[in-house]
Amino acid sequence: MKRFIIAAAPLLLSGCFHDIITAKPVNRGLLVADGLTWEPAFDVELEQDSGRSIFAWTSVTGSTSSAVSIAAVDELGRTVWRASPMAGETRSPLQFEARVAVASGTVYASWDESMLGSISLDAAVFDANGAQFPMKARVHGISRINRDKSVMVAAEGGSAALAWEDYDPDIKTTYVGISELGPGGVRWTRILGDKDENERYLNPVLAAAGTDGVLAAFRHLHNGDKGIVVRRFSADGTSWDDDVPVSDALSYKTNQQIADNGLGGAFVVWEDGRNGSINLYAQHISSSGAVLWDKSGMPVAVSEGNHWNPVVTPDGGGSFFCAWIDDNKGSKWELKVQRVDRDGVSLWSAGGLTVCESNNKQSMPSIVTDGEGGCVLVWNEARDGTLNVFAQRFDPDGAMLWNAEGVPVVNPGADHILPHMVTDGNGGFIVAWKQRSPAGKWRIKAQRLDENGVPLWK
Q1: pLDDT tens over the chain, length 458 residues
Q2: Is 368 within the bounds of a domain?
Q3: Residue 132 domain flag
Q4: Distances from the Cα of 22 to the Cαs of 3, 66, 67, 122, 149, in angstroms?
Q5: Is residue 412 a part of any domain in this protein?
Q6: Which has fewest Cβ within 10 Å: 41, 259, 323, 411?
C-alpha cells in the first residue's frame, strides 16, 4: 500500500510504489519521493506547454522488487498525475536507473530491467495527462557488466533519443547503441563498435540537432585511441559516413559534454590530459560534420591545476556556457563558469569566473540558460557540516545577479546530493536532489526558484 498526499490531503492508493508525492513542504522544498530502500536514480524534465515538472525515479521497496515511478508536478508544487509502466502487471521485474525526456507533450521513460535472468533496456510513453500509450518496448538486451550507462534527450517533432554503452563478452569489446523512440515504439536503432574486438565505443552523450535528428559524442578506441568523436543521426536513422574527431592532439580525452549550436551542429567540451594535468578543451562541429575551430581544439580551462567535471548548455544565441571544478592542485574544489562564443572566444574572465568564493569544496554542478542570455548554476557544497545545494545566476556579461555566497536551495541538517536543474518555463528554475533520511532510507526532493532565486515551494 502506498500513500500519496496531494495539496496536504491524504489519499491511499494501491499499487507497486513505495513513495510519497506531496505538495507539503519538507525541509524547505517539495518531498517528491520517500521511503526508498536503496539510493535512487532520478531524473527531472519540464513539460513546456503545461509548465509541469516531470519526475522519474526507481522506487525500490526491497531487495527483490522495484518499479519505475513517474509524477507530474505543477507550478504550485501540486501533484497532477502519477504513473508507472508496471501499473496493472502481476510480474515483478527489477527496474533500475530511471530516465525521462519530454517532447511536444509526450513523456518518455526508460530504465534497465532484469527479468528471468536477462537484462534489457526498456521504455514506455505517456501523454501529457499521464495516460500510457499502448507500448512498452524492449529497446535492447544489455549485459550484466554495463548498467547505468544510458542517456536520453527530447528531440524535435515529439520523439526522444536514447543512447547506451554495453559490453559484448563474445568479442570482448565495449560498444554504443542509439535509438529513436516515438509514441509507437522504437523507430530505429544503430549500433557502433560491436563487430571488432579491437574497437571500442564508450560513454555516449546526446543533444538534439534542431528540427532533424540528434547529435551524439562518444569516446572511440580502434587500433589506438581515437579520442572523442561526434556523429549526427537524422530523423530516419541515417548518419554521417564516419566519425568526426573533435581534436587531432595526441592526448587522453574523456568525460565529454555536448550542446547544440542552434543550427543542427554541436559544441563539445572534454577533459584533456595533453599538458600533464586535466584541462578543458572545446570544439565546434557544423551540421554537415565540418570541424570549425582549431583542429586540436580550443582551450577553455588550461591554467595551473586540474579542471574537471564540465557541464555545458547553449545560451540560445549561438554560444554556450561551460561550468567545471578547479581543484588548484587539491587545495580546494572551486566552481568556475565561462561563456564561449561560436568562434571559440571566451567572453568572460580568463580562466572563468568564480561562481562562489568559498573555502569549502564545491562539486556536482548543473547549469541551464536563463532564457535571457545568462545562465543559472546549482552545485553541492559542504557548509555547516553537511553537503548542501546552492544556486547562482549570471547575466550575459558575467555579472553575478544573486547573493555572492550563493542562494541556499535547502536548509542545513542533512546531506543533499547530486542536484539537477531544469527551467520551469516561466522565468524560474526547478532543482531536484536526493537525500538520506534520518531513518536511513532515501528521499527525492525538489525546489522551485523564481527569477531572483527566491524559493517558492515552502
Answers
A1: 333 333 333 333 333 333 434 433 334 699 999 988 888 999 999 999 999 999 999 876 555 557 899 999 999 999 999 999 877 666 667 888 899 999 999 999 999 988 877 889 999 999 999 999 987 788 999 887 765 679 999 998 899 999 999 998 888 899 999 999 999 999 999 999 888 888 999 999 999 997 779 999 999 998 888 899 999 999 999 999 999 999 999 999 999 999 999 999 999 999 999 989 999 999 999 999 999 999 999 999 998 889 999 999 999 999 999 999 998 766 679 999 999 999 999 999 999 999 999 989 999 999 999 999 999 999 999 988 889 999 999 999 999 999 999 999 998 888 999 999 999 999 999 999 999 887 888 999 999 999 999 999 98
A2: yes
A3: no
A4: 9, 21, 19, 28, 30
A5: yes
A6: 411
CA distance 85 to 390: 34
Q: How many other CB atoms are there within 10 angstroms of residue 236's CB atom? A: 11
Count structural domains, the chain.
1
CA distance 405 to 421: 19
Contact present, 237 and 278 (Cβ < 8 Å): no
Which range of residues forms the domain containing residue 427? 355-458
Q: Using the structure block, give the residue that is written with the C-alpha cell 511536444.
A: 104
Please tell me the distance from the alpha carbon of residue 20 to that of residue 245, in angstroms, as a whole number.
46
**293 closest CA partner among 320, 315, 268:** 268
The grid cell for 222 is 580502434
Q: How far apart are CA 306 and CA 188, in angstroms?
A: 40
In terms of C-beta density within 10 A (0-12 exposed, 13-18 middle, 19 or more buried), how is residue 101 classed?
A: buried
Q: Could you say which DSSP state residue 258 is in?
A: E
